[in-house]
Hints:
Blueprint: H1 3-11, H2 20-32, H3 39-46, H4 63-79, H5 88-107, E1 143-145, E2 155-157, H6 158-169, E3 173-176, H7 183-193, H8 204-227, H9 242-256, E4 260-265, H10 270-276, H11 282-289, E5 308-314, E6 317-323, H12 333-348, E7 356-363, H13 364-369, H14 371-379, E8 391-396, E9 399-400, E10 403-404, E11 426-430, H15 434-451, E12 455-460, H16 478-486, H17 490-500, H18 506-522, E13 530-531, H19 558-568, H20 579-592, H21 600-613, E14 618-622, E15 637-638, E16 645-646, E17 659-663, H22 669-680, E18 686-690, H23 701-708, H24 711-715, E19 722-726, H25 741-747, E20 754-756, H26 761-773, E21 780-784, H27 798-803, E22 809-810, E23 823-827, H28 831-842, E24 847-852, E25 854-856, H29 860-866, E26 875-883, H30 889-899, E27 905-911, H31 922-937
Parallel strand pairs: 4-6, 4-7, 7-8, 8-12, 11-12, 14-17, 14-18, 18-19, 19-21, 20-21, 23-24, 23-26, 26-27
Antiparallel strand pairs: 1-2, 3-11, 5-6, 5-13, 9-10, 15-16, 20-25, 22-24
Helix pairs in contact: 2-5, 5-6, 8-9, 8-10, 8-17, 8-18, 9-15, 12-22, 19-20, 19-21, 21-26, 22-23
Amino acid sequence: MHQGIMKAWLESSHxxxxxxxxxxxxxxxxxxxxSSVSDxxxxxxxxxxxxxxxxxxxxxxxxxxxxxxxRSLAQEGRRKGAARMTDPEVDAKQVKVLQLINAYRFRxxxxxxxxxxxxxxxxxxxxxxxAFHGLTAEDLQREFNTGSFAHxxxxxxxxxxxxxxxxxYCGAIGAEYMHITDTEEKRWIQQRLEPTLGRASYDxxxxxxxxxGLNAAEGMEKYxxxxxxxxxxxxxxxxxxxxxxxxxxxxxxxxxxxxxxVVGMAHRGRLNVLVNxxxxxxxxxxxxxxxxxxxxxxxxxxxYHQGFSSDFETPGGNVHLALAFNPSHLEIVNPVVMGSVRxxxxxxxxxxxxxxxxxxxxxxxxxxGQGIVQETFNMxxxxxxxxxxxxxxxxxxxxxxxxxxxxxxRSTEYCTDIAKMVQAPIFHVNxxxxxxxxxxxxxxxxxxNTFKRDVVIDLVCYRRHGHNEADExxxxxxxxxxxxxxxxxxxxxxxxxxxxxxxxxAEEVTAMVNGYRDALDHGDCVVKEWRPMTLHTxxxxxxxxxEWDEAFESSMSFERLQSLAEKIAYVPETHPLQSRxxxxxxxxxxxxxxxxxxxxxxxxxxxxxxxxxxxxxxxxTGQDSGRGTFFHRHAVLHNQxxxxxxxxxxxxxxxxxxxxxxxxxxxxASVLAFEYGYATAEPGGLTIWxxxxxxxxxxxxxxxxxxxxxxxxxxxxxxGLTMLLPHGYEGQGPEHxxxxxxxxxxxxxxxxxxxxxxxxxxxVYHMLRRQVVRPMRRPLVVMSPKSLLRHPLAVSSxxxxxxxxxxxxxxxxxxxxxxxxxxxxxxxxxxxxxxxERRRKENLTNVAIVRVEQLYPFPAExxxxxxxxxxxxxxxxxxxxxxQNQGAWYCSQHHFWAAIPKGAMLTYAGRxxxxxxxxGYPELHTHQQESLINAALxxx
Length: 940
């Protein structure tokens, strides 16, 4: 605001010379929190003239100059004869009132009534006492301006204001939001909390709906406890309000236009959510408790890990619900849910996240204790992983198994403090006040949809039984469980309240309890909003009950392939490239014209182009996926003048499949879990996660163990995710050599996934196309190369791409007389080329080399055909770079023994067993490599 306008403001107000202190303190309050002052004052301060001629977007300095500026304006106003209209003492107290309001917004939650058991010992917050701010008992009867406090008009008696602040910020809801830097978000929350004093006014219909939810939650647990005493069910009792909370979230989301909700949660309360929210038939659950199971193949999983899908009717339309399958690694499901949501949003063309919403339900110990939570929060606003915000609910039992929540589970005041890293608002709510719970549920949906950011609900409750129903919790928490035994259930507390206020009769309450129990006895769905699924857009039907050896067509005409090659080699002249990248694209022009054989990066990119031209989706993530860690892919090209990007793969045709290539956050666990979730909801395209080095998959081992390798066996959950894991012994030390091939092979069973080690550009091209073209969707684990990306022998022709197919086994390529072969060496990957070059150098003609390009499922038939010419050979060798206790030797040698002729011998050539994956000394690496090549070729 210019100086003249500022003068006019002061001259028209009651703020003259003696009120400069008031203005100064008001300005200090504004600097601490802009939302603490009224809109008028904020407009004044927002538009102060820059100090020392600085630009308006530079933070203001030299507060004394601001003070002097106000004083000079006030003095000028006095010279013009303006009269002072207010008492300086009152003006000073006015500022203190605004500071008191701000204190409640900042710290009111610390004195809120959050614990149903009233066991929390929380110190009084001094800043919430008017006396702390110099306000007296007499002041309680005085009228003060309420600034931006959105309740009761512009002025209120201080006593009434304090009551309103306590009701809003120290009742059953403790709102933590002042850590948010965006003023608009804070003002939005204030406008939702303060006018109603943090409460909602519900009619009988909504109150009855809330009570029905509590009745269902309690009725379900009591029924199971009576019918299956002692059986583990991980009861929701104590946190019963989760059920009405979920119902209100779904209703609110449906009204806003949401079409799908994906839920992730651990085992606490899962059975209750399955039956009372998603509409799983109680009879099916009871059969599971009784040990019955259907005809589905596989190992199955315990009932409290199972997923479910259904449609849920709301006044705004049906909403499809999907509860994700979840292992006992509690929080790992969170990024899986986010990936599934992102895939559904992409398929719907939903850029703002409104049509598909994630809900994750956490335990208080787990959300604070498991690092995957931080990783998932960290990716929540990143380009490749954002989903328009998620609703995160914490079922806060105040105990972790047997661990004290406040002393041993965390080092922060709240279990939800981790959410502050992304400035998510946190609404703590007492679970024994279900109307407050419903209010917060609706508020959370509206916030998420308005600002496209995460929001956290901390449902402060308790656990009526032990960690499971067989535990005795009083052994470790005697005081808590003595209190719990005497504490009425949430349903009874709320029912008594409604009866007392004449909202519902005692007879209606009794009828509700009996009616729900009768419905459980009947065994049919107890969710009246349940509807048959019609909104689910993921169709896995074409990929069900498929076998590996089913025929499929993947060939492509040479002309079409060459046309695509020219398109992906084209870069506009207006997009200058870095010199090394320009050389790569110059070579690709030559490759497209047939003047040069194809290298790895070009063949790989060409595979993506063919998939996109068939109108399939391609998604690739990894820490260097755009460029490629080893400077080989360059699918995303950076303009050297203005840093804009160009993707040839997005410029193939007017109608083509979408492609996203994203350099991911520096995480393996959360990103791989996200991509697993994405692939389970996107069957038709190609979803790839690429490790920077294959070794880094170690950090995501839980995803590989609990989801990727066993998801189909446990849950019947198909997934076509591809993992590219750079693997090869290049002398780069223990942590940059091995993708731990042995771990994947050890997990292989029941044809659960593919493990491939392609050795040529044509092989990677056909392998990637095969993953999409054939009617099979299972994970593909690729030991991808490093040095082979530029190896002079690792090249292929366009004809090999157009006319070939993936070869699970590649036999001898040199013109050796099979009759003269005395030894056959089996190998995979980079070591093949070292064996080949050394054999050629030594002019050996009695050793044949066979490449195994797919280690699992083991290609027994293809291997038999390759070995037909060597039935006379008795000397077979498996050669590998990895130490003997690693690699493929121990996990796959039974396949090799089965493949070789009867009476033949199989021996090992490779590094000796080692605790580390590789050595760190270049000289030792070279010596070991030389020794294993010599041993394989029988050289001295």
